[in-house]
């Protein structure tokens, strides 16, 4: 799980990323109310009838393995005298996915899906909830900006030397009398030659292995792979000008890809980029 944190009204709040969903620390939020008894604060909130109803509805909307039988027992007891429910009990009895209980002195505690965490924050303090939402939105905006920058870097790297590579194919491999369809087929073949040299499979083979992905293999490539991809396009253009057959070119390009990847993985420049 990827972890980060935000500061809400002077209080640090940890956030975990699990399966592309954010889970916010209820333990950190509870410190705003009672820093020495966060577990009790969370347990008191979970034990209310309103909270049990809310948690049950959330789980039924998002969790197909939610234990409705156990939930019914808990719902009937909620709000009665002496009823106490901890986050660990809720998770174990109902097979809930909206809460995560992590052990450990540092980074441990109870985490909840952001929908649930905002509800808990509202119970703690209306003003604290507003601060939490504001800081969470700021974090997501920053992450989106970074992702957009990363996407632009990836696409720019993927296009570096494309014109050189395309011109070399046009001048040396595409006879003038071929129609546009045939010329495009040759371009695709050359692209796959580089794909095989770098990724070990063609674009079609990648799509067949990844039917759930909307992009292509180059969209999913790492920064290191995109750097090498750019280099291979330039080198392949030179090899085409030398009139080397594709069988020789793919062998050379594969050797170059392996050598450059080893170098990049041991260096700091691409990591910095």
UniProtKB/TrEMBL annotation:
SMART domains per record: KilA-N (SM01252)
Signal peptide bounds: none
Q: The organism sits in which domain of life?
A: Bacteria
Name recorded for this polypeptide: KilA-N domain-containing protein
The record lists the organism as Dyadobacter luticola
Domain spans labelled KilA-N: 4-139
């Amino acid at each position: 799980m990827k972890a980060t944190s935000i500061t809400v009204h002077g209080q640090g709040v940890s956030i975990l990323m699990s399966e592309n969903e954010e889970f916010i620390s209820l333990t950190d939020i509870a410190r705003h109310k009672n820093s020495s008894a966060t577990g009790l604060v969370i347990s008191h909130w979970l034990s209310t009838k309103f909270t049990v109803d809310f948690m049950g509805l959330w789980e039924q909307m998002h969790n197909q393995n939610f234990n409705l039988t156990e939930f019914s027992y808990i719902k009937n007891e909620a709000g009665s005298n002496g009823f106490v429910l901890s986050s660990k009990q809720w998770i174990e009895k109902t097979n809930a996915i909206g809460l995560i209980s992590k052990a450990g002195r540092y980074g441990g505690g109870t985490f909840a899906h952001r929908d649930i965490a905002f509800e808990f924050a509202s119970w703690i303090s209306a003003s604290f909830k507003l601060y939490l939402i504001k800081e969470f939105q700021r974090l997501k905006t920053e992450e989106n900006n970074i992702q957009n920058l990363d996407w632009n870097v990836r696409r720019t790297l993927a296009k570096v030397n494309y014109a050189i590579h395309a011109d070399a194919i046009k001048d040396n491999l595409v006879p003038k009398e071929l129609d546009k369809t045939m010329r495009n087929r040759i371009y695709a073949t050359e692209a796959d030659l580089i794909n095989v040299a770098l990724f070990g499979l063609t674009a079609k083979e990648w799509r067949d292995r990844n039917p759930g992905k909307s992009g292509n293999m180059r969209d999913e490539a790492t920064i290191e792979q995109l750097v090498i991809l750019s280099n291979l396009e330039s080198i392949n253009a030179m090899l085409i000008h030398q009139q080397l057959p594709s069988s020789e070119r793919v062998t050379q390009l594969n050797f170059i890809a392996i050598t450059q990847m080893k170098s990049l993985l041991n260096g700091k420049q691409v990591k910095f980029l």
